[in-house]
Fold 2,5-dioxovalerate dehydrogenase.
Amino acid sequence: MSSIEVKGENLIGGFSRRGLNGVVRVNNPSSGELLPGEFGGASEQDLEEAANLAAEAFTTYRETSLERRAKFLKLIAQNIAELDDKLIERCIAESGLPRARVEGECARTVYQLQLFADVVSEGSFLGVRIDPSMPDRKPLPRPDIRTRNIALGPVAVFGASNFPLAVSVAGNDTASALAAGCPVVVKAHSAHPGTSELVGRAIQKAVEVCDLPPGVFALLFDPGYAIGQSLVAHEAIAAVGFTGSRAGGEALMKIAAARKRPIPVFAEMSAVNPVIIFPNALATRGATIGRAFASALTLGVGQFCTNPGLVVAVEGKGLSEFLSGASETLSTTSPAPMLTSGIHSAYCKGVDRLRSHQAVRLVAEGAAGNGAFARAALFKTTAEAFLFDRGLQDEIFGPVSLVVAAKDWAEVKRVLQSLEGQLTTALHVDPVDYDRARDLLSHLETLAGRLIINGFGTGVEVGHAIVHGGPYPATSDGRTSSIGSLAIERFLRPVAYQDFPVELQPQAIQNDNPLKLKSRQNGFLS
Amino acid sequence: MSSIEVKGENLIGGFSRRGLNGVVRVNNPSSGELLPGEFGGASEQDLEEAANLAAEAFTTYRETSLERRAKFLKLIAQNIAELDDKLIERCIAESGLPRARVEGECARTVYQLQLFADVVSEGSFLGVRIDPSMPDRKPLPRPDIRTRNIALGPVAVFGASNFPLAVSVAGNDTASALAAGCPVVVKAHSAHPGTSELVGRAIQKAVEVCDLPPGVFALLFDPGYAIGQSLVAHEAIAAVGFTGSRAGGEALMKIAAARKRPIPVFAEMSAVNPVIIFPNALATRGATIGRAFASALTLGVGQFCTNPGLVVAVEGKGLSEFLSGASETLSTTSPAPMLTSGIHSAYCKGVDRLRSHQAVRLVAEGAAGNGAFARAALFKTTAEAFLFDRGLQDEIFGPVSLVVAAKDWAEVKRVLQSLEGQLTTALHVDPVDYDRARDLLSHLETLAGRLIINGFGTGVEVGHAIVHGGPYPATSDGRTSSIGSLAIERFLRPVAYQDFPVELQPQAIQNDNPLKLKSRQNGFLS
């Protein structure tokens, strides 16, 4: 078993040391008991050191060979896998998530790192383009221009509470930034500090074994917001990866935009992920869809960015059957602990807001629970009320959803037109509904980053084609994905080399192609 | 000859009509005479109409077939070419640029549109990725996920004064946005309103002939800043392309960031494009480099974003020879008119600032001129003074450059370390200098978007490998290029389709590949 232990220390420059700026402690959300471990908060000076070391490491790290960088990512994956039960148990204790889910998430985290190792080895992220010289061109000769992508610079990463492994210290943002050649400074999420430290130490160990500059990775604890904010404002930081609330993401965007040198913030923030049930599907299998929907809604205590928080359909017998099916499944749902008491109380507040809304009625509830245990809930309103009160489309993080019943299909379309940007949209259709679906798709494509037929957005497949993104406020920049191999593009920028002698060319753009890269020659893929 | 004429009208929704919100008029910068034509400024209502029509057109236009969109871009190119002398002469009169330059720029504008027509036809900008389903995967089956890029939405374009054709109404931003499938609303530059209208009408005619929705293109005149600012703030606008001053770009960035739904601004703003002369090159051919430098500096009256406004080298005999060579060429440079009297007075102010700086001395000047004619100038300072006063690295737009003499090579490096982001950096080297160059390249890659060996940044080659971009403040976002085929990526976003039946799939992602596109299958290029 791994020798890595939780010590409550920040990880900076290859060392670990106790922070003296306040303390992060954490409760077990299942039992309420205080977990062992006190995590000393980083000071501004700690941050300064971590950021400057990252800037220093950048020069070397961004030019590591593809082979070496891929090996590094694989070693991180291996070190995390070797943490085994030590990590799984700490993560269960800190998150309240069930073992199977945490084990699955750990496997996904390991897979994600391996995927990026493959992306690095394959090398096409370097985006090589070569327009050879044309010395005889008239009226002027054409110079030789060759382009490759280089890493953007040190990246600040803010993990999510709801994926303490796959979207945290060694999660999607860290994996894609390290793959691109960017050092990473992580602000540890205060909901899972022990998990963060274990994973952070697994990365730090890989940095050391691969003999990389120690500034390639740092992990900082912050009992409040000040260190995270200073990190985004720090001159050495070139980009930010964030997954969390809209308020949190927007706060970081403001800091990044107000810098002397503004930097991009890739924030994944807020979505209600509408589920649209088309007339024929609703008429023929409303109850079945309702049961599947309630399962998706309560999966992981509804704590997914892609949770189906909104259902849109036309009022009628089919919708009644959908509601019956959903209610049936929902009422058998046991309460389960939410990630933190803060998340739980925000959930209760959101549910109470719906409960007391005069145009909204409660359809079904799960069993009640104690402490930070969430009671699932399903509400219903009319399209008219929904269109009138924009507050009804705000995300409530947790196992609650709002069914919007429209008078007719035209009203369904008006509801969809009124929505803000989303991560996902699910369409439940039968072949008879295809014409209607085709007619809507044009709008839905501009609404969300991922469209799903006869399924739900929950369950993000880590791969090459996945898009985990979407128009504002689903993310701060819909032109990217935060999950899957596309994510590496966020942390790269192109550099052109004009009339460079081969002695000064980086390997990626050399004619004899020592890295065996695919490239574009005069615009054509070779 | 083309039937298109200057009428002083805004172009909105397939119609042209006189704006009633103030008037734009323009002088011939060569003669000072007022040119014919009064261009009525657009009102907020005109803007509202143009933006809403663009949003309406977006739905149809973004799904035009690749063939039809390529044909549209080629027709714009043809319509511009057919404007012929009518356009060339108006452009010469409005810009003061010599005929050969304007003809060359017109050819570049036409070529640029054709290049993007080719990019559209080739289709790989659609970025198709397919991860097929794996129904037997354990523990869960893998869904079928297919991704393509779609257009971002209507784009606001602000052209540059210094390229009234190639970086204006039908310039790089417009060509790449239209290629991506985005409607365009152009705020006409007030320095060349007649040129803008002629080109705008050429686009409008192509929209009509291709039977595209009229909202695909609009052109608005604005005697002040209000309409341009409202355009960036308008809900229908999804991105902004801008080339101009740092103050202008930063003002638009602030508006875009403060929107309810922030949007990306691709602003190309400010650079001094350092020229580094390495010791051996300086010792063996200082005078020759000096002469070539002075020619590059005064080309187009120094009115290029890539103008070499800074030279860095070690003090000594070689640098004296460089200065002699440069002075010799500079002193034979005739004064030439700048684009506008405003640009000329800003230039004079900048030159006076250097002239009266106690640590800066004048090395050489071109012949003096009248009116808006610029007198080229070369100044010299020490590395010590340059490092002390950061104001010395601010761009002065026009034919002026500052030579920074360092005590030794270490000081050259300190000067380069102190610089802000740049569009280009030129290295003058002989093979003996290669080790020194190699040592510096790592920093220079993070400093600029394009590096040039033994040449100068002036002259941007429109192609596939070109990068016209660079770290802040050269541009607002160094991850992109505003010129060349890479520019299309600014206006696209990926959408994933999960478990879509073929009947609902867009053609780009269908298995039988009717568009004959290259794609990534499980990450591998097919």
